[in-house]
Amino acid sequence: MSGRKSTQATVRICGASSEIIAAGSGGRNEQGQLIPIDVKPGDRVLFGKWSGTEVKIDGQDYLIMKESDLLGVVDKTGSVKKAA
Q1: What is the value of pTM for the model shown?
Q2: What is the CATH number of the domain that holds 56?
Q3: Contact at 8 Å (CB) between 4 and 64?
Q4: Which end of the chain has the lower number of beta carbons within 10 A, N or C?
């Protein structure tokens, strides 16, 4: 399972965006080979409004989701540089 943790999401009209604070090593394909993920801590990502699972750890809200739930990565200028 490739899970992502992000800070509490800011809800937008067509979805949400947030910053990746931690990322797993990736997922495995049917042959058992590791498929690395395309995001890293610090990336700002877009995701659907109802994506992921909300958890609270030490009073802080987090959103954990699979990479397949991500719609794209936003670069520093605010434009989408990768999309699913």
Answers
A1: 0.65
A2: 2.30.33.40
A3: yes
A4: N
